[in-house]
Design brief:
Number of helices: 4
CATH topology of the largest domain: Elongation Factor Tu (Ef-tu), domain 3
CATH architecture of the largest domain: Beta Barrel
Largest sheet: 6 strands, mixed
Order of helices and strands: HEEEEEHHEEEEHEEEEEEEEEEE
Structural class: alpha+beta
Number of strands: 20
CATH class of the largest domain: Mainly Beta
Helix content: 25-40%
Length: 378
């Protein structure tokens, strides 16, 4: 038989070499290491220890410090309006003029009646003196003297009534000029210049709201009442009003009112804060986020609220260890406010916790910290 020559190509040679290497490796007893998985990129923050205010949050409603519905006390033609709708008005500033001519005529008539009756009274007074002398001398009967005295007393009463009518006429004339009782912002007009208005109509001609200072009214659970009374006794409590989505520049005021009864239907107590409202950012009817600060808790352990996760066994955080692996740590959250959570138990100041990227983490996973910031500040 003839001998056959077998030729191996390059691919077959490479396969043979790899197989030989694997056989040698297995024979030597050494294991081949699996490739290391990539570290999970995360964001982290330090656990801090600091003083944290104890606060109560609620939805508040802005109310005018005082509201006055202006009505006319007399009827007549609205001769002039001295302001524009939505204008600021000051206390004592004239608002409306009602046609004064009928009331001026009534005053003149009352004054004329007073003058006439006063003249008659003076004549009756003289008659009383004259008849007093005559009755003493027996020239006239006492009955006639008594009649003269009665006429004098009647005229005295008439003059007093005339004086009251004159004062009333002057008052009615004064009512023709309506002045602002407070300093505030005027609302919309119900009637316009030239219309006839009635005395003491059902609806006010205009409503004026005082907006400096101004109230923010809000309700808190009755369980907070004891703490509120306790800290109010120690000093003034600060109320902050956050407008819309603004969380960094609130209006600041002082708690000035605690209602005298708890609302039995809702189990809440009504509070009011008074604000100077210098820039007029607060407006009657506006809704705000009200925050009442009771006191400050020193040495509180704080983490960003984003670091706290919810699981089947409760709340937990991922703590980053020195070797850049993470550990799942259960925590007890006392309260959360302004993007931070106060931790009662579970972490220590100085530790690092993951604030973003938790979805890809498991205990023991390797992480790569993209940034590391103080608690609550990214």
């Amino acid at each position: 038989m003839g001998t056959k020559k077998v030729r191996f190509g390059g691919a077959a040679l490479a396969f043979t070499l790899l197989a030989s290497a694997a056989l040698l490796s297995s024979c030597s007893g050494k294991k081949v290491q699996a490739p290391v998985k990539d570290a999970v990129p995360v964001e982290a923050a330090m656990v801090e220890e600091k003083a944290v205010p104890i606060r109560i949050q609620a939805i508040g409603n802005v109310e005018a410090y005082s509201t006055v519905g202006v009505k006319s006390q007399i009827g007549g033609e609205l001769l002039r309006v001295h302001f524009k709708e939505g204008q600021d008005v000051r206390k004592g500033e004239i608002l409306f003029t009602i046609d004064p001519r009928p009331y001026e005529a009534a005053l003149r008539q009352a004054e004329a009646n007073l003058a006439k009756d006063t003249a008659q009274l003076e004549n009756a007074k003289v008659d009383v003196g004259r008849y007093a002398e005559l009755v003493e001398k027996g020239y006239v009967a006492r009955q006639q003297y008594d009649q003269v005295r009665t006429n004098f007393a009647t005229l005295q009463a008439t003059v007093n009534a005339d004086k009251a009518l004159v004062e009333n006429a002057r008052l009615q004339l004064k009512y023709c000029y309506i002045y602002s009782p407070i300093t505030g912002r005027a609302g919309g007009l119900v009637v316009n210049q030239g219309n006839l208005i009635k005395a003491n109509a059902d609806n006010p001609i205009v409503t004026i709201n005082q907006v400096q200072p101004i109230y923010v009214t809000f309700s808190v659970p009755e369980q907070s009442l004891a703490d509120i009374k306790k800290y109010m006794a120690a000093g003034k409590l600060t109320v902050e009003a956050f407008i819309g989505g603004d969380t960094k520049d609130p209006e600041r005021g002082v708690l000035t009112f605690v209602d005298n009864a708890v609302d039995a239907a809702t189990g809440t107590i009504k509070l009011k804060g008074t604000f100077e409202n210098k820039e007029r950012r607060l407006w009657p009817g506006q809704f705000v986020n009200a925050v009442l600060t009771l006191t400050s808790q020193p040495d509180a352990v704080v983490v960003p609220a984003d670091a706290v996760q919810a699981g089947q066994s409760g709340q937990y955080v991922f703590v980053i260890k020195q070797d850049l692996t993470v550990d799942s740590r259960p925590v007890e959250v006392s309260r959360s406010l302004d993007g931070e959570s106060v931790i009662g138990k579970g972490v220590r100041p100085g530790e690092k916790v993951v604030t973003d990227g938790q979805l890809r983490l498991v205990p023991g996973a390797k992480v790569e910290i993209k940034n590391s910031t103080p608690s609550g500040k990214q």
